[in-house]
Specification:
Length: 601
């Protein structure tokens, strides 16, 4: 069951490049975002004075004046987190690294290391931040390393054309299985290169939601990075489950320059080779394969697809601040405002730049909304109501089950929802009959036709593989997927790996009491490959019944060129005819409670 989790700590990280106005701007952004901590890099040199000595909303942990203060941390005075600096871990770093012990309320300790990796110790090629006691730091169960690494590597920037100052951080990531949370978005503006030098790393047991705040304008050439540490038991779940999907746009050369198209083709070729090589270890299915072999093939197919995506695609993680209306024009206007503030261009020019950005923001949002309404197809237009209706936030809501028991913890709420929405039905004794020949109709053309009809916008299931990604694997090896679908139809066996659904709990609007379990709806998300087999079976059954003309004329569900609208039209026609004959028309409506949820398969 997919449960929502509230953040137990919110932090910002930002390199503000020795500018007082920049620091004040990022602190104001932190106040607006409700951040507990602000990790600041490159704040002042040895001979510089503090540009911001105090702030009403924050207290600082920083080096004394007269010493280089390359790392600061600002702590929100209203935060309930206890923060202590661990100077022994960074004793030899001259404040180019800053280790903090953070204790959120009702949660385990977290070690956060603030890094500015640039300065060098005399007589050594190592940079000062690398002199921290990293061996001791990485022994903690929950560690976050964030800051300006001043390093370029394809390990966190797939578009990096050079590898500079990266070996130390690459080795640290590899040796301790650290998670890189950066997306493909640049963290530093200016210049011709796509620069990602502000990096966020964590130990595998940390659940982190990471994003770049595109609206925050500070005047620095670095962007403001925001991340949230989520609640939960450390190491209680596989870190790979934090990935909600993969972005394979890097494999496509559409709309890119010749060099980028070449790089995209190389990425796709490498991914295709990885996928095809994994299939060589699995025996091909045929018309004599058993149900056990079908199960093994389904498991091997998922492992091959997930392994390929983990190695050659960018992982996507859920973020509540994604902005579909953001454009390159807004990014350029944001840069202009930053330059005006940073270069002290005058109140007039700064005001004009700010006004231009705000106008462009309003225009972009309006155009995005109008485009959605104009291009929405059929039922998609009704989703507009979801964006205009009042949002219900029931995270952490205590529930009362049908027996009056109160569920408060996340585990108790999940158990109550499972019991209330998925009651145990009678044990089934159905065994598929042998000897059917419908599987002979399953070929590459039929499976490809049904897969092409699958919408790319449908949410994926437990395997996190969406329809558009499955279509790419289909182009690479159509025979493998066709053989699996055909074997499932022939044996009447649906692999167990496809029977795990990811449940998304949604409150029903207009309910008087949201403490009741039945005031919520559970959306079950299944694997796309499993739904492809179901779609194939439904197509074969419907085609057979239509050809034999065995369906009742009043059957409208699951039939081509028939829908609920036709049923309503027939009902209205019968009612009007009854009224015309001075008769009474009656209708009986029946609904089977939890009909789908109690099916045993």
């Amino acid at each position: 069951m997919a449960g929502l989790q509230a953040p137990k700590l919110v932090a910002l990280q930002h390199n503000y490049a020795s500018g007082g106005q920049v620091l004040e701007a990022v602190l104001e952004t932190a106040v607006q975002k409700g951040a507990d901590l602000v990790l600041i890099q490159e704040s002042r040199g040895e001979t510089e004075k503090d540009s911001t000595r105090s702030h009403p909303s924050f207290r600082f942990i920083r080096e004394k004046e007269g010493k280089a203060a390359k790392c600061w941390v600002a702590i929100n005075r209203e935060s309930q987190c206890q923060v202590t600096e661990l100077k022994d871990l960074t004793r030899d770093c001259a404040n180019y690294a800053q280790a903090l012990e953070v204790k959120p309320p009702s949660s385990a300790l977290i070690i956060i290391v603030n890094v500015y990796d640039r300065g060098q110790q005399r007589g050594s090629r190592e940079r000062l931040a690398q002199w921290a006691n990293w061996e001791a730091i990485t022994r903690y169960s929950q560690v976050i390393i964030a800051g300006d690494m001043n390093a370029h590597s394809q390990m966190w920037n797939g578009r990096a054309t050079s590898r500079r100052n990266a070996p130390f951080w690459e080795n640290l990531i590899s040796d301790h299985s650290l998670v890189v949370w950066n997306s493909e978005e640049a963290t530093r503006v200016g210049g011709d290169n796509h620069s990602i030098i502000d990096v966020t790393l964590s130990s595998p047991g940390v659940e982190l939601y990471w994003s770049i705040d595109s609206e925050a304008v500070t005047g620095s050439d670095h962007k403001v990075i925001m991340w949230e540490i989520l609640g939960g038991t450390p190491n209680s779940r596989d870190s790979s489950k934090e990935v909600t999907g993969w972005d394979i746009r890097g494999w496509s050369g559409a709309g890119k320059s010749k060099e980028e198209q070449k790089a995209a083709r190389e990425k796709e070729a490498a991914a295709q080779q990885c996928y095809l090589s994994s299939g060589k270890e699995t025996a091909a299915l045929d018309d004599t394969s058993s149900a056990e072999q079908v199960e093994e093939a389904a498991v091997a197919l998922r492992e091959a697809m997930v392994g390929t995506l983990n190695s050659h695609a960018r992982a996507k993680r859920w973020c509540s601040r994604s902005k579909p209306w953001w454009t390159e024009e807004l990014g350029e206007l944001r840069k202009q405002l930053g330059r005006a503030r940073r270069w002290l261009a005058g109140i007039g020019r700064t005001r004009d730049a700010r006004r231009n950005l705000r106008r462009a923001l309003r225009k972009a949002k309006k155009e995005c909304w109008n485009k959605f309404l104009q291009e929405a197809e059929e039922r998609e237009v009704w989703t507009a109501a979801n964006y205009t209706a009042l949002r219900l936030d029931r995270t952490g809501q205590a529930l009362v089950d049908g027996e009056g028991n109160i569920a408060e913890s996340q585990e108790e709420r999940e158990a109550a929802i499972l019991k209330g929405h998925f009651p145990k039905g009678p044990l089934g004794t159905y065994e598929p009959s042998a000897g059917g020949r419908a599987f002979e109709l399953v070929d590459v053309h039929l499976v490809g036709y049904l897969l092409a009809k699958a919408a790319n916008t449908v949410a994926p299931g437990d395997d996190r593989i969406s329809a558009d990604i499955l279509k790419v694997f289909w182009q690479w090896d159509r025979q493998r997927i066709t053989q699996l679908v055909r074997a499932c139809i022939r044996t009447g066996y649906h692999p167990k790996i496809w029977k795990t659904a990811k449940g998304v709990v949604i409150p029903k609007p207009g309910k008087p009491d949201y403490t009741k379990v039945r005031a919520y709806r559970v959306i079950s998300l299944l694997d796309v490959i499993g739904k492809l087999v179901e779609r194939t079976a439904a197509h074969l059954i419907a085609d057979h019944l239509e050809r034999k003309q065995t369906l009742h004329e009043g059957q409208y569900g699951c039939r081509k060129r028939r829908s609920c609208v036709d049923a309503v039209a027939v009902l209205m026609n019968c009612t009007q005819q009854a009224w015309a004959g001075k008769k009474v028309a009656g209708a009986l409506f029946m609904d089977v409670k939890s009909a789908f949820n109690i099916q045993q398969c």
